[in-house]
Specification:
Elements: H1 2-25, H2 29-33, H3 40-43, H4 46-49, H5 51-57, E1 65-69, H6 77-84, E2 89-95, H7 104-119, E3 127-132, E4 146-152, H8 162-175, E5 176-187, H9 206-215, E6 219-224, H10 251-260, E7 265-271
Parallel strand pairs: 1-2, 1-4, 2-3, 4-5
Antiparallel strand pairs: 5-7, 6-7
Protein name: Class I SAM-dependent methyltransferase
GO molecular function: methyltransferase activity
InterPro entries: S-AdoMet-dep_MeTrfase_Alr7345, SAM-dependent_MTases_sf
Amino acid sequence: MLAKVLGLTVFLLLSQSSFAATADAGISISKALQHEARTAENKKRDAARKPEQTLAFFEVTPQSTVVEVWPGSGWYTEILAPLLAEKGKLYAAHYSDKFTFLSADYMQKGRAEFKAKLASHPIYKNVTVTDFAPLADIDIAPAGSVDLVLSIRNQLYLFDGETSLKHALANFYKALKPGGVLGVVAPRLPDNMLNTDWKKTGYVPEQLWLTLAKEAGFSFEASNDMLLNPKDTADHPSGIWSLPPTMAGTEEEKARHLAIGEVNQMVLKFRKPR
């Protein structure tokens, strides 16, 4: 009888411990992908963008403090907000009026639409909107407070050459904790096009990111080929904006670009030294 009681006690203690560990862990990335706040249109792009694999590669957990740089309309915010809602923290560093490369109307419209999204569902109540402009001294989050800075599908860092990317990297470095991760997903310029006039196409040389990130103090940790698209020749009339989902161009061009799929992307992980 005593053995049975002891056995039951151990079972209950283990069960409670397991439950506590599960509760403390928060929801998984796969569960966040299925959250009701995500739009059906955005879910259609999961196969091409591989958000679960991407966030796992960058070591995002439900307990992470994350800055999403230029979240745009909130494609990744729809995933990050539910993932981080209970145990983590999300800063959305949106367009700043100090970024003069884009029109004021475009930026204001983008921020307004993003804030309307945040107001549309309670899952976004803990998202903090901050500002980001590559050449402005604006804190995207409190210094040294962030586990991850995610720059996903941003192509405007080089609007005035390397200077803006250098300033952006310094800003990211400042926000990160020692040991924090900078995760970059960006259109990759093919090596055979390095001598072309690529700065207006949206494609960026991988080596430029590697070189400038090292100069900023980051260590390069790993790359991943999961978002490479060999069909993307990077020579489209409207650059990356020719391809889905933007699809700039004539109807004939759109049909051709739809067959190519989404842009060829590099996935790079950097770390701020401890």
